[in-house]
Amino acid sequence: MIQVEHLQKDFTIHHLNKTLHAINDISFTVEKGKFLGIVGKSGSGKSTILKSIYGTYLPQSGAIYYDSESLGRINLVTASPREIVHLRKYEIGYVSQFLSVMPRTTAYELVVQSILETGASKNMAHNEAALILKHFDLDETLWNNYPNYFSGGEKLRLNIARAVVKKPRLLLLDEPTASLDNASKLKVRQSIEKLKAQGTTLIGIFHDLEFMEGLCDDVFTMQKVVVNANEA
Ligand SMILES: Nc1ncnc2c1ncn2[C@@H]1O[C@H](COP(=O)(O)OP(=O)(O)OP(=O)(O)O)[C@@H](O)[C@H]1O
């Protein structure tokens, strides 16, 4: 489903006249329906990998082959912005501990919009939105509020609710349980297990190794490779 080959991503820090190799020569494969956990020290480049797959970062070299349902086998490093937007809408989900949302859109509307993007009817979207918000224990008084005002844990639960309702083919999880209590973590785990049973392929970063126990089919360990590459 995903084949990462010799991926390298550098960042130029202009005010320091330096270039950092955030990731260097990274290769791995994830089969359809499997869960790959990525572990490694802080700053070793875990998020950079996920952001490169999601098309947020453009790697310097290497390839990320993704077997898309609608576009066929596609290299996400050279895909056009239009193709990336299409894949984000219909096939690839990304959940991080940070929430970026449309202004003046309530939590409930955000989830309904996500479900409508899958082609569901309005009725179905409203029913499913209520179910998933209840599943993640998002207090009903918050449903019609703007998420900018939510606590960290509330934002996270909304973020993951929005992603799972789309039943993505590939779901990227960047510490989605970072500030959650144990009960909420369990709900996230149940949702991940359900998606996996439905055939979703997952790549996830969790500092909480206990959480990953029994969930991942494979673990990729990052070595810290960030070096000052050159004086720019
Ligand atoms: N947009 C950016 N601009 C400049 N440097 C960046 C950028 N994003 C990441 N880096 C640097 O690249 C390196 C890898 O960062 P990344 O966030 O991928 O690490 P990580 O393993 O996910 O870390 P953590 O576990 O602390 O979240 C770090 O040294 C970071 O400072």
Automatic annotation (TrEMBL):
On the tree of life, the source organism's domain of life is Bacteria
Identify the Pfam families for this entry: ABC_tran (PF00005)
GO terms for cellular component: plasma membrane
- Name the keywords, alphabetized: ATP-binding, Nucleotide-binding
Record carries keyword ATP-binding: yes
Q: Where is the ABC transporter domain?
A: 2-232
GO molecular function list: ATP binding; ATP hydrolysis activity; transmembrane transporter activity
Q: What protein name applies here?
A: Phosphonate ABC transporter ATP-binding protein
Q: Which organism is it from?
A: Ureibacillus massiliensis 4400831 = CIP 108448 = CCUG 49529
